[in-house]
Design brief:
Largest sheet: none
Number of strands: 0
Helix content: 55-70%
Strand content: under 5%
Number of helices: 27
Distance between the termini: 70 Å
Order of helices and strands: HHHHHHHHHHHHHHHHHHHHHHHHHHH
Structural class: mainly alpha
Shape: elongated
């Protein structure tokens, strides 16, 4: 009977109900213990609001045990906030300055990942509570005791009551994806030497499963530490590997050459070992070394060099002397890209599992974070977002200014229960003006209904605290179950009654308490609306366009510079090129990718842009994810092509590479202009495919491997750009190659 009934409860109510039970048990236990058992009303207030702050207002992602761990780590921060709020509250100016600094710091902590972002609203509440009357530093010990009791009970409740199954972690997802890559590489070395349609779709779906937005928030590797960065790198490299394996083409039934087969076999071994490493196995040192050696042999073979060349470089035309046709060299270049992705995957996975004790040797440029300490990595993350183009910075400034204004109004005008006004500002301010205004309208309606109900309850109940004590836990359970599901209007109305039931047990109540609550919510809503209008009212919608356009502009610069460096010029008598200086702009592109990724993540949670104008100015159904991938592919390809040893290209190959690089960069600039147009930008959308690309399709005779590696990189960027420009971002069939066949 109970099982049938439980299955009929909608999932949203079941999730909210479990959380409501935990919060209600903890809040009621702490409140009644101190209020009626020990006669400590201050400790009772802080015990209740500590549970409500971290358990109700915060949205810490993950299972109960994961949330409990986050709350336990946040306990010292909670103590600090209560202490600082208590001592700064004695003067209005110090309380206002404290609200500005603390409000910005806690909101900006979202750069650390979903857990700090989810805990931030509750931590804001724990600073706001002692920042308002009564201004009594002498009660600090009682406040800390109540806060600690509420949080400790909440940690125990989250960990023990209604335990939840943990979804697959990102490491487990990456391990499964690595094994899928191993399977695909095996298929390419056995008859019919190609992926079937089912395997192709599986590779695509597995790669999509590693996208951060398809992963539960608690499992996303979003932190700034080495392991999180490396796990993010692992996911990106694995997705690239699966994509390259799926696109590797050959004539049906044609076996690969022995060197290609050796590379693909080594890829299989490394992918298998990487999957085992991600599940707690040993470092994939030997498979990584085997693949590096196989890749070096194939690279030397394609370049016309002996397998163990000691620094000698071929002259232009050496590849054709080796007897390889252009189609074979193109396939070699594609296989070398597969090897590079697999090597990056193995090294990143070892870092993700073993941290600074990883055994696989990593490239210092690509894995710059491998030897950096936590303070350096945190500083790098904070500095990267400390600018007006970061949505994290925008959100922190908007919220901090709104909270500061609310605290100033409450202090200067001696607004009764000004804490409620600041709380309304915190809970009703959104990242776009549209969302803020829509939220405020619904919230005021709900608050008005709750105020009317509160006035009736207080009038009927009078001063008998027994009635309020009996009703409080039942109403709290109802409010925290229904409010999150029904929306902000219901939540505000139910919470209005809830706070009245609490304060009616702390001081003699009158129906005027409902009037004050309505006034405070109105003031807090007005402040939130003003700052929502003044500070970046369009949220991430416009910012995503700007950051994506900046990403493509930076990528275009690197494409031109890399192509020009690779093309170089004909060297008299052939010979090797000196090692070139690193192409400038890599750091700028990395920063642009970070900003675009954070804007894209916020964009997914926002509704229609303000006024609808922003969406009309951008191409419909833009595949923003393809823009981010294009940025990563630009970085990785540029780094790979500029690694020594390199050979000079012949005159014809140099001209072809330089012209193709400029063409790809030009298309990047066209798309960037379409994403972030000026007043006189042409409105015609850029074509999905470059109409002039056919003239670059014929390979120059005698071109070395480096030429085909560069062309393969530029072709992959053209594929990314075509995906950005197309109207339907979801691929449904195998994409055709962008270059014409032989």
């Amino acid at each position: 009977m109970w099982g049938v009934t439980a299955r009929r409860i909608p999932a949203a109510y079941a999730v909210a109900g479990r959380r409501a039970v935990r919060v209600t048990l903890v809040a009621a236990a702490g409140f009644y213990l101190f209020r009626y058992g020990l006669g400590r009303p201050v400790a009772a207030t802080y015990a209740l609001f500590a549970a409500v702050a971290l358990g109700g207002l915060s949205r810490i992602p993950g299972t109960g045990r994961q949330r409990a761990a986050t709350m336990a780590r946040a306990l010292p921060v909670c103590w600090l906030l209560v202490i600082v709020g208590t001592y700064l509250s004695v003067r209005t100016w110090s309380a206002v300055v404290g609200m500005l600094l603390v409000g910005f710091t806690l909101a900006f902590a979202a750069v650390g990942g979903p857990r700090p972002a989810g805990a931030a609203p509750g931590l804001q509440l724990l600073y706001m509570l002692p920042s308002f009357p009564p201004y009594d530093p002498g009660s600090l010990a009682e406040r800390l005791v109540g806060t600690t009791t509420g949080l400790v009970l909440l940690v125990l409740a989250e960990a023990l009551i209604f335990p939840e199954p943990r979804p697959p972690s990102y490491r487990e997802r990456a391990a499964d994806a690595a094994r899928t890559a191993a399977h695909c590489a095996t298929l390419l070395t056995t008859p019919p030497y190609a992926l079937g349609d089912d395997d192709f779709r599986t590779a695509q779906q597995t790669g999509q499963g590693l996208r951060p937005l398809t992963v539960p928030e608690a499992e996303r590797p979003a932190g700034p530490e080495v392991r999180d960065r490396a796990l993010t790198h692992t996911g990106l490299a694995t997705r690239t590997l699966l994509s390259r394996l799926a696109l590797l083409r050959a004539a049906p039934g044609t076996p690969p050459g022995p060197e290609v087969s050796a590379v693909l076999t080594a890829v299989t071994g490394l992918a298998t070992a990487t999957g085992a490493c991600l599940r707690g196995g040993p470092s994939p040192v030997t498979p990584h070394e085997n693949l590096a050696a196989a890749r070096a042999r194939l690279s030397a073979l394609s370049s016309g060099l002996p397998a163990h060349a000691d620094g000698a470089h071929p002259a232009p035309g050496a590849a054709s002397a080796a007897g390889f046709p252009a189609a074979v060299l193109r396939r070699h270049a594609a296989v070398l890209e597969i090897a590079d992705a697999a090597l990056a995957m193995g090294a990143a996975a070892d870092l993700a599992v073993h941290g600074r004790h990883a055994s696989v040797e990593v490239a210092p440029g690509r894995f710059w974070y491998a030897t950096a300490g936590p303070p350096v990595l945190w500083w790098h993350r904070l500095r990267g977002h400390a600018g007006r183009r970061s949505v994290f910075f925008q959100n922190a400034v908007r919220l901090a200014l709104a909270l500061t204004a609310a605290r100033l109004v409450a202090g200067v005008d001696t607004l009764p229960h000004g804490f409620w006004a600041t709380l309304a500002t915190l809970t009703l301010t959104r990242t776009t003006m549209d969302e803020t205004w829509s939220t405020i309208r619904v919230a005021l309606t709900g608050t008005l209904a709750g105020a009317l109900l509160t006035a009736g309850v207080l009038t009927l109940g009078g001063t008998d605290t027994t009635v309020y004590a009996a009703v409080l836990p039942v109403w709290m359970l109802f409010a925290f179950t229904v409010g999150p599901v029904k929306g902000v209007g219901w939540a505000q109305g139910l919470f209005t009654v809830l706070v009245a039931l609490v304060f009616a047990q702390l001081a003699p109540p009158t129906w005027h308490l409902a009037e004050v609550r309505m006034l405070d919510v109105l003031v807090g809503s007005a402040i939130g609306a003003v700052f929502g209008l003044l500070a970046w009212p369009r949220g991430a919608h416009d910012e995503l366009r700007r950051t994506a356009a900046e990403l493509l502009r930076r990528a275009a610069e690197i494409v031109v510079a890399t192509s020009a460096t690779v093309a170089g010029g004909p060297m008299a008598g052939g010979g090797a090129t000196p090692d070139p200086p690193a192409v400038p702009g890599h750091r700028s592109l990395q920063h642009a990718v970070v900003l675009a990724e954070s804007a894209y993540a916020q964009y997914q949670s926002e509704s229609t842009p303000f006024g609808g104008a922003a969406r009309r100015r951008t191409p419909p159904r833009m595949d923003w994810q393809a823009t981010l991938i294009a940025g990563h592919h630009t970085l990785w390809g540029s780094e790979r092509l500029l690694e020594p040893p390199r050979c000079r290209l012949g005159p014809a190959a140099s001209t072809s590479v330089g012209a193709l690089g400029e063409r790809v960069a030009g298309r990047m600039l066209l798309l960037s202009a379409a994403l972030d147009p000026g007043d006189d930008t042409p409105t015609a959308p850029p074509p999905m495919l470059d109409p002039a690309l056919a003239e670059f399709a014929a390979e120059p005779p005698g071109a070395p491997r480096l030429y085909y590696a560069t062309v393969s990189w530029l072709d992959s960027l053209l594929t990314d750009l075509a995906r950005i420009a197309q109207s339907d971002p979801a691929p449904r069939a195998r994409p055709e190659p962008t270059r014409a066949p032989d």
